[in-house]
Amino acid sequence: ATPTTDTFDLNDPSQRELKMIVEECRKVDLPSDEVMRDAVDRLRRGVEVWLNGTAEAPFLYDAKWGGLVSCGCAYDNGTCTNVLPDCPSFSDPGLNFGNGFFNDHHFHYGYHIYAAAVVANFDLNFGRKYFEPVLAMIRDIANPSTNDPYFPEFRQKDWYLGSSWASGIATLGGQPYLNGRNQESSSESIAAYEAISLYGAVMVHAWGDGVSSDVKENNNAKTATRVRDMGRLLTATEIRSAARYWHVLHGDVNTRPIYPKIYKPSAVGMMWDTMAQFQTWFGSAAYLAYGIQLIPLTSVSERRDSLNWAQQMYPSYAESCESDPNCAVQGWSVAQLAMLATVGHPKWAMETAESLPLSVFESAGGNGHSLTNTLWYIATRRAVAEPLVLKKAKIVPVPSSTKEKKETKVTISS
């Protein structure tokens, strides 16, 4: 079934797998044309409901704050019990991650924009048909115009820091958060801007590469070019700032440290205006703070995660993950395996990934990947001249409630 109630649902296993794998499969002799058409059709349906207004909790325009927000769903027995104009997201800041209060918009809409780019790459008519609705999402999170009367300029971006803020207008007891704005996942922020650049690139081609005989198409191609270039700038600055503020390197003589020596972790889980925390909104385990900086696994992740940082953070990540079965059950070991491949052990990571129960890829931390996407990422890591020295594999039982065909999970520590 195509999820149509939560703006974050497009990050489910089937959608994530399709978005990342369709293009790769097209380049080899694996799927037939029929299989390819079916894959694109499925993804098209998942994207289109959000663009044509048929989602159960559709997007609406908030004229007061100038942005797109989801109506939201009040769930009862797994179904949406409300219909427009009854929109619970406008009164509940905890619903849908606070989308109605402008929380996490770039995280959520980045997945939609990425998916739209993939469909448009295979279906130019789809891209042209929904150009304006997708641009509305882009304008919501990364509007470059000071003259746009409908959306503010760069809602999320802090150009002084180079990074973004995820928090919206939600308050704590009716008062602003004392620590100011915050952002948890630097990696999802990067992925959102990567999506914008990819969408712009695809749509330049969809509108005839600027050499059409149609004036309107050429104007749209110019707009798409600006979207592409803006996305590249946003992505590059976000990567640079993530490396500076979220990826903590100890003993790096080439970088002036900004955290005191007493701060031992190799990452920041939550960044605030006035504070850096090694935790997340949903827990304080080390594997959560590391894992949230590593999802989703896309092409830009290779540029995002330096080898130096991966080698420093991996021991702590692995130790935390193998000491708590919930790391595997909740899917956070998927990103750990991606890092294992990054530090020089792709074969080991591949074998371990194939031993994971499929339920791992339907869990909170793993449902943005899928097994296929994970294997793709592991298989495409660069060779490392001096792989990180590791101990032997440690077998950690998977709780019976998550067992399928696999009886154990293998984790690797340094």
UniProtKB/TrEMBL annotation:
Instruction: List the InterPro entries.
Output: Endo-beta-glucanase, GH81_C
User: Which is one GO molecular function term here?
Assistant: glucan endo-1,3-beta-D-glucosidase activity
> Which reactions fall under this protein's catalytic activity?
Hydrolysis of (1->3)-beta-D-glucosidic linkages in (1->3)-beta-D-glucans
For this protein, the Enzyme Commission number is 3.2.1.39
Transmembrane ranges, per UniProt, are none
Q: Some GO term, biological process aspect, for this entry: which one? A: cell wall organization
Q: Tell me which Pfam families the record gives.
A: Glyco_hydro81C
Q: Does the keyword Cell wall biogenesis/degradation apply?
A: yes
- Where is the Glycosyl hydrolase family 81 C-terminal domain positioned along the sequence? 32-376
**What's this protein's family per the entry?**
Belongs to the glycosyl hydrolase 81 family.
Name this protein carries in UniProt: glucan endo-1,3-beta-D-glucosidase
